[in-house]
Write a structure and sequence with these properties.
The complex is a heterodimer.
Chain A: H1 2-32, H2 39-56, H3 61-84, H4 92-114, E1 129-132, E2 135-138, H5 139-161, H6 163-173, H7 175-180, H8 185-211, H9 219-231, H10 236-257, H11 265-276
Chain B: E1 2-11, E2 15-25, E3 30-35, H1 41-49, E4 57-66, E5 69-70, H2 76-82, E6 84-87, H3 99-106, H4 113-126, H5 128-132, H6 143-155, E7 161-165, H7 173-189, E8 193-198, H8 201-207, E9 210-215, E10 218-223, H9 225-230, H10 232-239, H11 250-255
Parallel strand pairs in B: 3-8, 3-9, 6-7, 7-8
Antiparallel strand pairs in B: 1-2, 1-4, 4-5, 9-10
């Protein structure tokens, strides 16, 4: 029982982090049909911005967070403007290839400035273990869990309630019709990229706080792809459910079956689910009126 | 209010769609723009609303004036903000959004939240059916309801000129009549000027104050509906009548090739 509780809590925190990162991928895909393979590198940007501000310059951590967020917004908007806007109207596949190139570029630039060695992250979130009955969870994981839940709830509200959120969903549905309402598509794309970069940066800080800061932080970006495909590329609830499922599957299979198996089992589950639901669990099927 | 002076529209730098197209829409009027498939009616509307760009089209000559100011170089969002709103052909509702979210998307350029709520009520007043379905996903509405939603969405933007592209497309005759009644009411009660593109000439001439007939990218005939209805060519080719009340049989058509006089 203790093991089960331990694995569940660890799986949940991992899962919610995945969900947070997946949110960025879903957002970009929803609004512009582009799969952003550089999402993992946005985590790096966040982690290193924080590392630089707090660890190297020695600023207090609230300032560090503000700087990190600003850097993330800037990175998202810059990528949209410099890399993606010139590609509007080009085939989607070339845009996707560009994001792959972008991921190498970001990683290279960061290692140029910070080197490739793993470095300790300035711990501003306490790691004191918190006991849940027989299970023990470090406090930073709980922080990650809470923050992820709060952010996801915030974004769901944003998409349901605010004009900007509705406009983003409208663009995802029918770009030309959205244009005819006076919605600026470029603005919507820029917002989508900025939000994606911000959630990734926050996730990057949380991950770096748990595992230390190095290029490996971006690897979690790749592990998120099963999550978004499982949940449905265009569904925010799907990102959350997919994240939790993959997170739990990983820890359960690693804990109960065999360590190392956690790398494989999520993909097996992914294939099984896609055989039954090809759009993912919550993916939008095309509405056809008959 | 709206004036197109000799405009020319070219798609993809080579395909000339409109050439020397001119027309006027007076404030408070309902103006109908009629014509067969491919005459350039939708292109005319898109030229006005700035929606040509995503289709690689451009106004290459002439000018479009709205309230005395040139709008042919502005982008779509600016044109909407100035009060020109196009209801696109084929309804184009946001299928995965609810009815109310669709309406709020239409109000994107209107940032006053209190006014938005009032406008919602206004639209629901015109279209009670939308009120019943406000939380439903728009993609599952019937064709008529989607057309109502498309018009309601346009009302949310407070346009001074509403351009409707074939509102009767694919709808049952009864529904079409209902929609046209509402269009008339919007024109009279909200003082919205309406530019109506239609294939259904009979209906359009019935509601319009003035009408233009378009062929091959330019206006070939214009006048008050009563006047146009008397024109032999309009009767023949748009209303399908030779004598009052009698329909033309296919047999006659086969044997008698009449040429439109306004061409050539």
């Amino acid at each position: 029982m203790a093991l089960f509780l331990q694995l569940t809590l660890t799986g949940l925190t991992n899962g919610m982090l995945y969900a947070l990162i997946a949110l960025g991928i879903v957002l970009i895909f929803k609004s512009s049909d582009v799969i952003n393979f550089a999402q993992g590198e946005f985590l790096l940007i966040g982690a290193y911005a924080m590392f630089w501000a707090v660890g190297q310059v020695g600023l207090p951590w609230p300032v560090g967070i503000l700087i990190t967020l600003a850097v993330a917004v800037l990175a998202g908007v810059l990528v949209e403007r410099l890399v993606l806007r010139p590609l509007i109207g080009e085939p989607i596949i070339s845009v996707i290839m560009v994001t792959i190139g972008l991921s190498s570029l970001i990683r290279a630039i960061i290692s140029l400035f910070f080197g490739t060695a793993s470095q300790p992250f300035p711990n501003f979130i306490p790691r004191t273990p918190v006991a849940f009955g027989p299970a023990v969870v470090p406090a930073d994981r709980l922080w990650a869990l809470g923050l992820a839940v709060a952010l996801l709830a915030l974004f769901i509200l944003f998409f349901r309630r605010t004009n900007e959120g509705i406009a983003m969903r409208a663009v995802a549905d029918d770009q030309q019709a959205a244009l005819s309402m006076g919605i600026s598509i470029q603005r919507v794309f820029a917002i989508a990229w900025a939000i994606a970069a911000v959630v990734a940066a926050i996730a990057g800080v949380l991950v770096a706080n748990i595992v230390g800061v190095s290029g490996d932080v971006s690897r979690i970006g790749l592990r998120v792809f099963p999550v978004v495909i499982l949940g449905g590329l265009d569904s925010i609830p799907g990102a959350i459910v997919g994240g939790v499922i993959i997170g739990l599957l990983e820890t359960y299979s690693g804990g109960y079956l065999k360590p190392g198996l956690e790398q494989v089992v999520p993909f097996v589950a992914l294939i099984l689910i896609l055989m039954v639901k090809p759009y993912g669990l919550f993916g939008q099927t095309r509405i056809e009126r008959v | 209010m709206l004036a197109l002076n000799n405009i020319e529209v070219i798609y993809n730098d080579v395909i000339l769609v409109l050439k020397g197209m001119s027309m006027q829409v007076g404030e408070g009027q309902i103006v109908a723009l009629l014509g067969s498939n491919g005459a350039g009616k939708s292109t005319t509307l898109k030229a006005v609303s700035g929606l040509l760009k995503p289709e690689d089209g451009a106004v290459t000559d002439g000018e479009i004036l709205f309230l005395g100011q040139r709008i042919d170089r502005l982008d779509a969002a600016d044109i909407v903000r100035r009060g020109v709103f196009q209801v696109m052909e084929g309804r184009r509702v946001f299928e995965h959004l609810t009815v109310e979210e669709n309406l709020r998307a239409g109000a994107y350029t209107q940032r006053d939240a209190r006014r938005q709520t009032q406008d919602l009520e206004l639209v629901y007043g015109y279209f009670p059916r939308l009120l019943e379905r406000r939380q439903q996903t728009a993609g599952y509405l019937s064709g008529g309801e989607q057309q109502m939603l498309a018009i309601g969405r346009a009302m949310m933007a407070h346009p001074r000129l509403m351009m409707l592209d074939e509102p009767s497309l694919g709808l049952a005759p009864l529904l079409v009549e209902e929609i046209f009644r509402i269009i008339r009411r919007i024109n009279q009660e909200q003082k919205t000027t309406i530019l109506l593109v239609e294939q259904n000439a009979r209906l359009a001439l019935a509601v319009a104050d003035y009408a233009y007939i378009m062929e091959n990218g330019r206006i070939v005939l214009e006048g008050a509906p009563a006047q146009l209805q008397e024109n032999a060519d309009v009767r023949e080719f748009y209303l399908g009548l030779t004598d009052v009340g009698t329909r033309k049989s296919y047999r006659d058509v086969k044997h008698y090739k009449r040429r439109k006089r306004w061409l050539s």
